[in-house]
TrEMBL record:
Keywords: Amino-acid biosynthesis, FAD, Flavoprotein, Methionine biosynthesis, NAD, Oxidoreductase. It comes from the Bacteria. Pathway: Amino-acid biosynthesis; L-methionine biosynthesis via de novo pathway; One-carbon metabolism; tetrahydrofolate interconversion. It is an enzyme of class 1 (oxidoreductase). The lineage of its organism: Bacteria, Pseudomonadati, Pseudomonadota, Gammaproteobacteria, Orbales. This is Methylenetetrahydrofolate reductase. Its EC number is 1.5.1.54. InterPro entries: FAD-linked_oxidoreductase-like (IPR029041), Mehydrof_redctse-like (IPR003171), MTHF_reductase_bac (IPR004620). Pfam families: MTHFR. The keyword Amino-acid biosynthesis applies.
Amino acid sequence: MKVNQLFKDKTVLSFEVFPPKKTSPLASIYGTLRELGHLKPDFISVTYGAGGSLNGETTINIAHAVKHTYGIESVAHLPSINFSKEEMITLIEQLKLAGIDNILALRGDITPDVKPKQDFRYASELVSFIKQHGDFNIIGACYPEGHTEAVTVKQDLINLKEKVDAGTDQLISQLFFDNDYFYVFRDKAADMGIHVPMEAGIMPVVNKKQIERMIAICGVNLPKKFKQMMEKYEHHPEAFRDAGIAYAIDQVVDLVSQDVDGVHLYTMNNSLIARRIHEAVASLFTIPKHPTVKVSA
Ligand code: FAD
């Protein structure tokens, strides 16, 4: 099923997982998926490390299991910067064979160790390519605080509009800790003529190392109250975790109250934390909503 159809009549709640590291057995993810599956999210997306290998089978196998073993719709992430068009066709065919209907079409991060191929310079080029080669619901990434390489937030929005016009059916945002960034971004996107469903990305922060890594990768701002929370509990792991969960719950309650199209929870493969957040907010996602977005067929 194309998951963009879900936005027609409900506030969507989705989860994100990543494949286990190469040193861990693939099977280690399945316990997590089973537990996440019990929470009945609207879909689960599976990341794909942009390391230049054609090892998308791991992502595709997990996305296949999410759908066919655990009965939850799945989304496969697909970063393109390190692939040729030929390689991309192979991956698209594998996705078709696995019965995956939803692709998060990404450029991927440019890393110093891998020389990018030139076939897909931007995610918008991948979106057009997927459109030519299959019938998928295509999802794109967006950045409420601007992408780290963006010249200006305005230019980033112009580029996002190009990606949507290329055939993106739905958007999922980068994580953020100040909801106001998301609301301002959502309004600006609507003013630019971007009307596809846009989910808000929320990451529960449960230890200090995790947030330091995220700031380095994503360049997101930390509000004062978040910093105070970190300072107060940094030497008390259990309290830090509880405060991080409470903070994420607070963000979700506010987002749903402000009629977001959906919330995408970066679970970090931690089903216990996902369960605690889910327990606190699940009922908010059961209230029918008036459609405010354009959903493509
Ligand atoms: P693009 O949309 O191509 O944007 C990248 C930059 O190029 C932006 O600064 C944009 O403004 C600029 N740009 C776009 N078009 C043009 C143009 N025509 N001319 C000039 N500049 C332009 N990475 C992974 O490797 N694997 C994953 O599984 C993964 N999952 C993610 C999930 C989500 C929800 C998000 C938000 C990000 C994810 N990423 C993942 C990270 C993502 O790959 C990086 O943020 C990457 O740097 C940008 O990818 P993009 O698809 O947003 O790129």
